[in-house]
Amino acid sequence: ISRTGRAHGGKIYGNIVVWTEDQTGSRVYMRDIAKHKTRQITFDGNSISPDVYGDKIVWRRYYWSRDNWSRDNLSSGIYMYNISTNETKRITYCIDNPAIYDDKIVYVGPGNDTEDQADDCIYLYNLSA
């Protein structure tokens, strides 16, 4: 499926396999094993941790700028690609380790930054809501 020798994090659902390759940055790819077709999903070089369910692929896009960190300028977050419509959208900002099942995405995100909840938390995003 992958020919570069630099592939990571393969996941499969049905006939769709997703993974990342880092030749010049980390990019998400998908392969429809029934149709023998591979498609590059991301082109930014900052995409990791893909997962797939049905016709949806999720991944983490990371970006860090010490000079210009704000929620408005930060492009890090969980993104979703719809295989059927070829559309990509950001699900949320500044998080990690996405997984998708049915119409739900779970991910790790920052806590409330209080003394009793300064660590990361698990969040659920419902695509149907």
Molecular structure report:
The structure is a single chain. The protein has 129 residues and is mainly β. It has one domain (7-126): 6 Propeller (Neuraminidase). It is built from no helices and 11 strands. Strands 1-2-3-4 form a 4-stranded antiparallel sheet, with no helix packed on it. The protein starts with 6 loop residues before the first strand and ends with a strand. Residues 69-73 have low confidence and may be disordered.
SS class: mainly beta
Mean pLDDT: 83
- The top-level CATH class is Mainly Beta
Shape: globular
Structural features:
129 residues, mainly beta, Neuraminidase, 4-stranded antiparallel beta sheet, globular
Can you lay out the helices and strands and say which pair or pack?
Elements: E1 7-13, E2 16-22, E3 26-32, E4 37-40, E5 47-53, E6 56-61, E7 77-82, E8 87-93, E9 96-101, E10 104-109, E11 121-126
Antiparallel strand pairs: 1-2, 2-3, 3-4, 5-6, 6-7, 7-8, 9-10, 10-11
Care to give the gist of this entry?
With 129 residues, this protein is mainly β.
